[in-house]
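Worked example (supplementary).
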Amino acid sequence: MKNHKTIVLSNQEISPGYFRMRILAPDYSRLAKPGQFVMFRVQRSLLPLLRRPFGIFRTGFMPADCDTMPPKEFIEIIYKVVGSGTEIMQGLHYGDPVELLGPLGSGFDLNLTSGDNILVGGGIGLVPLYMLAESIADPSRAEVLIGGRSRDDIITVTEFERLGVKTFVSTEDGSIGDAGLVTKVLEQRLEQKPKARVFACGPMPMIRAVEKICRSKGVALQVSLEELMACGVGACLGCVVKGEGHTTERPSYLCTCTVGPVFNASDLAWDNHDHASGAVSYGGCECGEKR
Amino acid sequence: MKRKEKVIKNVNMQVEIAGITLRNPIMPASGTFGYGEEYAPYLDLNSLGAIVTKGLSLNPKAGNNTPRVCETVGGMLNAIGLQNVGIEQFIYQKMPFLEQFDTPVIVNFFGNTQDEYGEVAARLDELPGVAGLEMNISCPNVKHGGIIFGTDPQAAFAAVASVRKRTSKPLIVKLTPNVTDIQVTARAAEEAGADAISLINTLTGMAVDVKTRRPRLANTIGGLSGPAIRPIAVRLVHQVVQAVKIPVIGIGGISRAMDALEFLIVGAKAVQVGTANFVDPNAMATIITELENFCLEEGIDDINDLIGTLEV
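After joint prediction of all chains, the assembly is encoded as:
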């Protein structure tokens, strides 16, 4: 965990409104685990003041500018332009200075990836699932269910296919893949693979629906959550979610940044989760969006 | 050939507040630094003037619903609701970590009632590892977070006086800016036996999501912090310095040494850094270095020579 004052290596639009940014990030391929995130600072200014959390899409190396230099280590993040912070981000080019704090948070529990795995992602929620898919020992037994509102929101399909992971695409308006919600596809796939373990990341209504399905079928589920946060290191207590058994008398609040962002679904309180994770439906703050 | 020795002049950065010796005037503001351990990977806690903990109560406190934080122009709103582990867990789980460091630990605390304030203070008084207490009579985000004590000078006097009876440790009282005349509250705290005053806590504020037409915070109203509030904080510190004889600690929107200097010049003996810790976990270390460099450049040997030198 360190704050790197670093630079942007590349920044490309991969689908209307979605960008993939490559950032110079020493040590990340050794340190970063699937499901972890960075607190990203777009510029040293008052707007936006706070950093924003972004899930790590992947880490890697690229050739240096000249032969005598070691290869450059990078991370990639994917973001959707939704506010003033991400509007500044989309205008960044090679060499622009940015800051990365991380890698932060817990990752997915990779001990649970043997056997059949089903990855469920909605929109930008595919980001942490890619690094998870890269780490799965037997990709042929993994499948990823990619959901979105419309065809523009369907991202990273080719990347998953290259790993040898089977992909199932669905959109709410039917503009690409199956028409309907990604959770409908999940129900169908669980019929085929009733012993699969499920990993999910996406908007909170999707996460809740996935949890309901997995609970009714007795399937193990890990979820990656996104919450509004100020610090990313467990100090501000802004990003808490309610843990299993939470009551007003015996409160159990878990920091998304340090205990999460990946949780075992069984460790969270779901029935009364409306407020604890309601932040997602608010769509972030005026200055940018998360992940 | 004899090498010419480079002359490095040292600046005395040490200040004293209510009997606590600080190696420099920079410390975190309560609630922005957890219990210290959260920031230990990024910052040498031994470089700080003091460590100020998250506010503690007699029993663990759950805090408010989420969303609890939200960014606004040049600052942020928060309504955490004083979530904390409670005094007993603090003593057994957090205090041993803090005792490893050679930095004074100031414990921030609050109570629901006057008696509870006294009880927490008495418990903290027994701990040798605690250098001083910061009494929070100013949290805007909970009904009983002390704001009723902070906005009514008589209640403030009574609460501070009752805490004073229970502890012999240095007692700092943290004031709210959400009052008409801050000098009245400050004098009440001084007369009741406070050894120092810290200010400001957050200013109450509100933000609305125009699409959902809901407040951005679950608590509706929150506390505004960050660079946006600094001019207000400097003004209030200036006014309190005029009103009391005890030392004052300045808080509000400090993110650079230049910001800290404004508070020192108007008369604060030390400052607390809050929201800037969230923006840059290394912010306080940078401020300390910048502050030392400023003194070197300006030919100031002792930071105390700078305090309260405002020319009007």
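Two points are worth noting when inspecting this output. DSSP finds nine helices and 16 strands in chain B. The CA atoms of residues 40 and 49 of chain B lie 15 Å apart.
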